[in-house]
Specification:
The complex is a heterodimer of chains A (about 120) and B (about 240). By secondary structure, chain A is mainly alpha-helical. Chain A has one domain: Fumarate reductase/succinate dehydrogenase, transmembrane subunit (3 helical TM bundles of succinate and fumarate reductases), CATH 1.20.1300.10. In chain A, helix 1 packs across helix 3 and helix 3 runs antiparallel to helix 4. The N and C termini of chain A lie far apart (about 60 Å). The radius of gyration of chain A is 19 Å and the shape is elongated. Chain B has about 240 residues and is an alpha+beta fold. Chain B is about 30% helix and about 15% strand. Chain B contains eight helices and seven strands; from the N terminus they run ββαβββββααααααα. In chain B, strand 3 and strand 4 form a beta hairpin. In chain B, helix 2 runs parallel beside helix 5 and helix 5 packs across helix 8. Chain B is elongated, with a radius of gyration of 20 Å. The chains are: A mainly alpha (about 120), B alpha+beta (about 240). At the A-B interface, helix 1 and helix 3 of A face helix 6 and helix 8 of B.
């Protein structure tokens, strides 16, 4: 039987707390966003653009997406850890997930500040 | 109480003889004195002595006769025959290697239990008599110390099925909190460090299968929540 210590990485608590905090940010933003949308004067492209014109809305939306990507990083990584056992394949999938999420973050910034 | 016939479907596997596991169908006449499922299993053993299962105290204290009864883990000795329908399916506890029939290899389960150091670790010199606690301090241990290690909870937990070598499992985590909550224990930091990896504690996703099946009506999920609270209090 393998005598190796099974405890290695000490990021369990940090990721768990991170997921809870990011979930809270997303929940608050969802309510805030729905209220903002309901209060729109009209449902057209001009109103949609005005909604995101303000600096605070840009900031809050960006924060929402950052929270979403961190949340997704922990969640998707956990799925790879549960189901993919070969280290090489798992490292590849972790890397792809990480870079895709970082790419999305840049894309979100570009879209938000272009509006 | 009148007699009735129950059709038992029992998982059978003897690795020395059988190529693969199979389900044995066995109609059994249940009599009035057969109060618990274990009574019927003992009757079946008299009919077919090749059936293997563990049992000892026959009153829910030793935890030997844990098995999967109609799809749900439980102790045969605490399961009322009257609560069972006319078809009863018995399988070994899921997720552990089968040694024979209803007997599973609990090595991995106990390895996880031992990994949390299930004993008081104290740095203070041993007192002349015993280490005292106030009644309130002792109260904290209620609902934790009663675990009989039957493995009903851990073997109903998908996280334990997936990572039995890395996830401590509900039984082990209940025991971990039992010693974290003990005022006589001095190893709180080491215990929390030992659980702070992505698997050992945090593979619990609070689905509460453990609470659902515990024959002693304990609540491992609550204990796991309290461990997380302790980690939070330590971190911020």
């Amino acid at each position: 039987m393998v005598k190796r210590l099974t405890v290695g990485a000490h990021y369990g608590f940090r990721d768990w707390l991170g997921q809870r905090l990011t979930a809270t940010v997303m929940a608050l933003y969802t309510v805030f966003f729905l209220v903002k949308v309901l209060l729109l004067p009209a449902y057209d492209n001009a109103a949609w653009r005005t909604l995101f014109a303000g600096g605070f809305m840009k900031f809050a939306t960006f924060l929402f997406f950052m929270a979403l990507f961190y949340h997704a990083w922990v969640g998707v990584r956990d799925i790879w850890m549960d189901y993919v056992k070969p280290v090489g394949v798992r490292l590849f999938l972790h890397s792809v997930t990480f870079f895709v999420l970082v790419g999305y973050a840049g894309w979100v910034a570009q879209i938000l500040w272009r509006l | 109480m009148s007699t009735r016939t129950i059709l038992f479907k029992i998982y059978r596997y003897d690795p020395d003889k059988d190529r693969a596991p199979y389900m044995q169908e066995l109609p059994v006449e249940v009599e009035a004195q057969d109060r618990k499922l274990l009574d019927v299993l003992v009757r079946i053993k008299a009919l077919d002595d090749s059936l293997a299962f563990r049992r000892s105290c026959r009153e829910g204290v030793c935890g030997s006769d844990a098995m999967n009864i109609n799809g749900k883990n439980g102790l045969a000795c605490l399961t009322d025959v009257a609560s069972l329908g006319n078809v009863v399916t018995l399988r070994p506890l899921p997720g552990l290697p089968v040694i024979r029939d209803l007997i599973v290899d609990m090595t991995q389960f106990f390895k996880q239990y031992h990994s949390i150091k299930p004993y008081v670790v104290s740095n203070s010199p041993p007192p002349e008599r015993e280490r005292l606690q106030t009644p309130d301090e002792r109260e904290e241990l209620n609902g934790l110390y009663e675990c009989i290690l039957c493995a009903c909870c851990s073997t109903s937990c998908p996280s334990f099925w997936w990572n039995p070598d890395k996830f401590v499992g509900p039984a082990g985590l209940l025991a971990a909190y039992r010693f974290l909550a003990d005022t006589r224990d001095d190893a709180t930091n080491e215990r929390l460090d030992n659980l702070n990896d992505p698997y050992r504690l945090f593979r619990c996703h609070t689905i509460m299968n453990c609470v659902d099946v515990c024959p002693k009506h304990l609540n491992p999920t609550k204990a796991i929540g309290k461990i997380k609270e302790m980690m939070l209090a330590r971190a911020v």
